[in-house]
Design brief:
Order of helices and strands: HHHHHHH
Radius of gyration: 15 Å
Number of helices: 7
Number of strands: 0
Low-confidence stretches: 1-12
Shape: globular
Strand content: under 5%
Number of domains: 1
Length: 161
């Protein structure tokens, strides 16, 4: 299973990859699935960099956040703000390409993916500017992940029928 989204930017990528690619180890079955796999690998390669470990301590992967992470009232330090800006700049190259979402059967899933991506970018911008506490950022990131999960399940159920 992919670690993409550890810092929250690609929330729901693991579900998306599993749902769009089908069986584990099989090649992606659509342009959207291929793009999601590529985007996920790109984010993973950035998140594996030790430079971002400090961010991971404050905002672990979705599903791994404790009540302490969700209730953290501290604002990011100037160093953490700079690191969040660097992270955001680095992962911008990983954004899924809209042209991979031209298949009408996958457009709802594609919209959910891109909408969540852009909303998570906005959360990082707010965090990097010091407007959000870590707890606010983590709670909003979890909410985005839950919403994307619902949207993808709905989109995939619609394409299955």
């Amino acid at each position: 299973m992919t670690r993409a989204g550890q810092l929250g930017l690609s929330a729901g990528v693991a579900l998306m990859v599993a749902a769009l690619t089908g069986c584990a180890g099989s090649p992606p079955s659509s342009p959207l699935a291929a793009e999601v796999v590529q985007s996920s690998a790109c984010v993973d390669s950035i998140e594996d960099q030790p430079a971002y470990a400090q961010l991971r301590l404050k905002s672990p992967a979705l599903g791994e956040m404790s009540s302490t992470h969700l209730a953290d009232t501290s604002k990011p330090t100037l160093e953490e703000q700079a690191l969040a800006k660097e992270y955001l700049a680095a992962v911008s190259a990983c954004e899924p390409k809209p042209q991979s979402m031209l298949n009408p059967r996958e457009q709802a899933a594609g919209r959910a993916i891109l909408t969540t991506w852009h909303e998570q970018e906005q959360l990082y911008i707010a965090l990097a500017s010091g407007r959000l506490t870590w707890g606010q950022f983590n709670r909003m990131t979890e909410a985005l992940g839950r919403r994307m999960d619902r949207q993808l399940r709905t989109a995939m159920a619609a394409t299955a029928s």
